[in-house]
């Protein structure tokens, strides 16, 4: 397949930097940046240097291997590892259990579980911490359960429990030793009372909406386009795709687009996808296949080689809207986008 015929995924690194600025302004402090899963699937590694230029010094990954990669970050950058696992020589291990805390010679980061019940020390565990092991500027984290839900009682309870645990730790620190707080994720930055020393946005950096109850304050980062590979005229009664889950009610034009679930274009979005063609929004029809899907262009005759837009800054084509129609979340869509696209970075 020639380059012109290849689906193209455009990643706007400038938008990532602008989103970082917006989040810092909202948080009224310098933020960190979550860059796990290859920057949420965007692989926009050059933009990391620009984030450093904006004053970002704290980065978060999921695994020790991701910390080892470091993506050419400067030597003084701090890379924190969320998940329990083998120690890393280059990342900062986040302590997730009392046993890890007991075994550690010193502690630079602690995760407190305030309700996620996934990773982290329980409040009872916090009470048993040996505070003498806690280093200067140790980062104390927690993870919100539903910070994207406005006025959540659950979030308020988590904030209060977290503050109580932090106070307990501070009361037992050696004289003059300081710690740093980190409570707000992307949506948490917009939650009243969730202020902390180091907010750590992830999804919002890459264009996801941290305030789903209102208009997205973030700039779109990802644009996905694909060529039309084949055109046919459907008759009334013609069915499309495996098991013929869609049937034409009248004659119409159909365009086959070479993107499927092997490219991260989820099969769960079958008969739900919307694309833009010639400034018109059009629906996909039939089951999404491994390598292709079909668009109903109605009375508009499509041309082979013309491009359709699948993800963009159009409200109906935002990463959140696309994911919702596939019955999932934008996080999964971003991290699922495959390796067969021609990637363009700007």
List the helices and strands and how they pair.
Blueprint: E1 8-11, H1 13-27, E2 33-34, H2 36-40, H3 46-53, E3 58-61, H4 64-69, E4 78-81, E5 92-93, H5 98-103, E6 107-111, H6 123-127, E7 134-141, H7 153-171, E8 179-182, E9 222-227, E10 230-234, E11 239-240, E12 246-247, E13 252-257, E14 274-277, E15 280-285, E16 293-298, E17 307-311, H8 319-325, H9 330-336, E18 342-345
Question: What attributes characterize this protein structure?
Answer:
18 strands, 9 helices, 346 residues, 5-stranded antiparallel sheet, 4-stranded mixed sheet, alpha/beta, elongated
What would you say this structure looks like, in words?
With 346 residues, this protein is of the alpha/beta class. It is built from nine helices and 18 strands. The strands form five sheets. It has a five-stranded antiparallel β-sheet with strand order 10-13-16-15-14, with no helix packed on it. It has a four-stranded mixed β-sheet with strand order 17-9-1-18, with no helix packed on it. β6 (107-111), α6 and β7 form a beta-alpha-beta unit. The mean pLDDT is 94.
Number of strands: 18
Order of helices and strands: EHEHHEHEEHEHEHEEEEEEEEEEHHE
Spatial order of strands in the largest sheet: 10-13-16-15-14
Please estimate the helix content: 10-25%
Q: Could you give a short account of the major beta sheet?
A: 5 strands, antiparallel
Low-confidence stretches: none
What is the overall shape? elongated
Strand content: 15-25%
Given the helix and strand composition, which structural class is it?
A: alpha/beta
Mean pLDDT: 94
Radius of gyration: 23 Å
Report the end-to-end length measured between terminal Cα atoms.
24 Å
Count of helix runs = 9
């Amino acid at each position: 397949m020639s380059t012109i015929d290849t689906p193209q995924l455009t990643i706007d690194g400038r938008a990532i930097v602008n989103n970082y600025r917006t989040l810092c302004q909202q948080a009224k402090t310098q933020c960190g940046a979550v860059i796990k899963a290859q920057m949420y699937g965007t692989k926009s590694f050059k933009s990391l240097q620009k984030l450093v230029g904006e004053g970002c010094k704290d980065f978060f990954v999921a695994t020790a291997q991701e910390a080892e990669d470091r993506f050419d970050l400067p030597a003084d950058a701090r890379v924190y590892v969320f998940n329990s696992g083998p120690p890393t020589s280059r990342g900062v291990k986040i302590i997730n259990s009392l046993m890890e805390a007991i075994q550690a010679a010193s502690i630079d980061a602690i995760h407190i579980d305030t309700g996620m019940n996934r990773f982290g020390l329980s409040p009872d565990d916090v009470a048993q911490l040996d505070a003498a092991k806690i280093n200067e500027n140790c980062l104390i984290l927690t993870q919100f359960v539903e910070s994207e839900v406005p006025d959540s009682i659950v979030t308020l309870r988590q904030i209060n429990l977290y503050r109580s645990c932090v106070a307990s730790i501070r009361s037992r620190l050696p004289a003059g030793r300081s710690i740093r707080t980190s409570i707000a994720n992307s949506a948490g930055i917009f939650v009243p009372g969730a202020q902390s020393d180091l907010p750590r946005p992830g999804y919002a950096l890459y264009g996801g909406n941290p305030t789903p109850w209102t208009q997205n304050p973030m700039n779109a980062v990802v644009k996905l386009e694909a060529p039309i590979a084949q055109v046919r005229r459907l008759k009334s009664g013609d069915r499309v795709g495996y098991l013929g889950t869609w049937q034409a009610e009248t004659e119409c034009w159909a365009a086959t687009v070479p993107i499927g679930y092997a490219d991260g274009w989820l099969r769960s979005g079958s008969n739900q996808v919307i694309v833009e063609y010639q400034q018109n929004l059009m629906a996909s029809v039939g089951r999404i296949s491994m390598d292709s899907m079909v668009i109903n262009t109605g009375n508009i005759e499509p041309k082979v080689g013309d491009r359709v837009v699948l993800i963009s800054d159009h409200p109906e084509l935002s990463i959140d809207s696309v994911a919702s129609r596939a019955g999932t979340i934008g996080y999964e869509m971003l991290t699922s986008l495959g390796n067969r696209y021609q990637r363009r970075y700007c």
